[in-house]
Every structure is written in C-alpha cells, then in structure tokens.
Design a protein that fits this description.
Number of domains of chain A: 1
Number of helices of chain B: 5
Number of strands of chain A: 1
Strand content of chain A: under 5%
Radius of gyration of chain B: 20 Å
Distance between the termini of chain B: 35 Å
Number of strands of chain B: 1
Order of helices and strands of chain A: HEH
Structural class of chain B: mainly alpha
Number of domains of chain B: 1
Structural class of chain A: mainly alpha
Radius of gyration of chain A: 21 Å
Shape of chain A: elongated
Strand content of chain B: under 5%
Oligomer: heterodimer
Shape of chain B: elongated
Helix content of chain A: 55-70%
Largest sheet of chain A: none
Helix content of chain B: over 70%
Distance between the termini of chain A: 63 Å
Largest sheet of chain B: none
Chain lengths: 58, 176
C-alpha cells in the first residue's frame, strides 16, 4: 500500500531523519557562535541598534 | 535502506563539526582565562563576557575554523587532482602502494562529497563573519580573510569539477 517503485515510507522517514542530523551538524558553528553571551546586551537589541542607527544617520 | 549519499554527507560533516566544538572550547578557555574570566569546561557553553572579549574570542574562532576548512578543502582538491581513481598515473599508484598510502586513492563520490561539505562550512563561516561584522562583534580582518578564502576555494572546486567532467566526456567520445 505504502510502497512505491523503490522507496518505502520507512526509507522516507530515515531520509528525513538523516537530513535533520545533517542540518544540525552544518548549523553547529552557528549555534555555538551565538551561544556565547554578551554582558547586559542581547543580540536582538544589538541588531535593532544597528538598523535604527543606520536609518537615523540618513 | 539508507540513502548512501546522505549517509556519506553526514560522515564527512562530523570532522568539521567536531573540530569547531574543540576550537570553541580551547579558544574560549584560553582567551577567557587570559582576559580574567573564570572559564572551565563546565561553563564554557554558558559564558557571559564583555563586548570586547566576545569580539576577540569569536574573531579567533572564525579565523582558526576558516583556515581549518580551507586546509580541508585543499586536501580533498589535491586528492582529486593527483590521486583520483579515474586518472591516477600507474607510477603514482605504485608509489602509494609502497608508501602504504592507498587510502588517498578515492573515487568521485568520496572526493566531491568531502569537498562539498568543506565548502558549505566555509560559506557558513563567511556568513557568520558577515553577521558578526554587521553587529560590530568581530574585526574587519576576519571578514576580509573569509571573503578571500571562500571564492578561492569555490574556484578550485569548480575547476576540479570541470576538469573531471571534461575527462569523462573525452572518455565517452573514445568509447563512442
């Protein structure tokens, strides 16, 4: 019922799982870089400051 | 049952991911302690530092990881240029057998999946340095270095790929 030409539902689930593992491994540098925190400042505040600063400078 | 390509990509991405974790731990502990923070293996992932310390730690981390990825892609490109299974010289094969370095002889599947993963990590480092530079959290030289290393690696990768495709089309012409 669930079987197509070569692939089964189980194969599809394993593929999705492997894609998720690959995704996690590839994004590990991003997670670990933003894991370090700055005293008293959040990334959101910094981003807003940058954008607002550049728009107010015009 | 498993996708061979996905499995290979996961296998190849373990080395750079693990290297990043090791670099992160070592650099944060060394620089954090030298800057006066009490950093140990237990609080390395939940550390709060000043903006200058953050900039220094992440700059060093990105430089080291960028160079590591560049060396990784250079290694796989050299392998595919000189030790590719499809066009390795017989004398070279003999030399590698004598040196017991036959693991260097690989096929396109192994070589290009490895190069691709290193290239993806290099691009991730480039985008990270761009974001951090935009937020004022890293030095300009990091972005400059990454903007230099990434296009060079991409150029070598494309050159190697085109070289291989030309060789394959030449072989097809011979057989046709």
């Amino acid at each position: 019922m669930f079987r197509t030409k070569n692939h089964t539902v189980l194969r599809f689930i394993f593929d999705i799982l492997m894609i998720l593992i690959l995704f996690f491994l590839l994004l590990l540098p991003v997670f670990l870089t933003f894991n370090l925190k700055i005293e008293g400042v959040s990334y959101r505040t910094l981003g807003i400051e940058k954008v607002a600063g550049s728009s107010s400078a015009r | 049952m498993f996708s061979k390509l996905l499995l290979k990509l996961i296998e190849e991405s373990i080395t750079p991911a693990f290297a990043f974790v090791v670099f992160k731990v070592l650099i944060t502990i060394y620089l954090g302690n030298s800057l006066g923070y009490n950093v140990s293996i237990y609080n390395v992932f939940s550390l709060e530092v000043s903006k200058d310390a953050y900039s220094l730690i992440n700059s060093y981390l990105l430089v080291v990881f960028g160079l590591f990825c560049f060396l990784g892609i250079l290694y796989s490109i050299i392998k595919s240029l000189y030790f590719h299974r499809s066009h390795i010289h017989p004398n070279m094969t003999l030399n590698l057998y004598n040196l017991r370095a036959t693991f260097l002889i690989q096929d396109s599947f192994h070589l290009y999946s490895q190069s691709l993963i290193w290239l993806i990590y290099l691009y991730i480092s480039l985008f990270l340095s761009m974001i951090l530079y935009f937020l004022g959290l890293t030095n300009g030289y990091v972005l400059m270095m990454m903007s230099f290393l990434t296009p060079i690696s991409t150029y070598f990768f494309i050159l190697d790929l085109e070289n291989e495709m030309e060789k394959e089309s030449e072989e097809e012409e011979i057989y046709v």
